[in-house]
């Protein structure tokens, strides 16, 4: 069996027979779906998926934020009145 990133797993045939039961058995934790002892994919909760997507977006944006925060050529002096006008 190739390297799994989760402690829980189910076979593709079990998953196709009863996906709801597989999800309930996982108790909200990620689990692998296997076909012939190879990982086809992972099932995660909607909340965990949201966290993963947010982390991916943050990793994508971090270099851009750092680059722009180091670029002082775009800095302009302004007043609070201008900001809220």
TrEMBL record:
Highest classification ranks of the organism: Bacteria, Pseudomonadati, Lentisphaerota, Lentisphaeria, Lentisphaerales
Superkingdom per UniProt: Bacteria
Protein name: Antitoxin
Originating species: Lentisphaera profundi
């Amino acid at each position: 069996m190739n390297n799994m990133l989760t402690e829980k797993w189910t076979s593709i045939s079990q998953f196709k027979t009863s996906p709801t039961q597989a999800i309930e058995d996982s108790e909200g934790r990620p689990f692998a779906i296997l076909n012939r002892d190879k990982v086809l994919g992972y099932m995660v909760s909607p909340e965990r998926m949201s966290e993963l997507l947010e982390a991916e977006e943050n990793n994508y944006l971090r270099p851009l934020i750092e680059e722009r925060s180091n670029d002082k050529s775009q800095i302009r002096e302004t007043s609070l009145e201008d900001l809220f006008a």
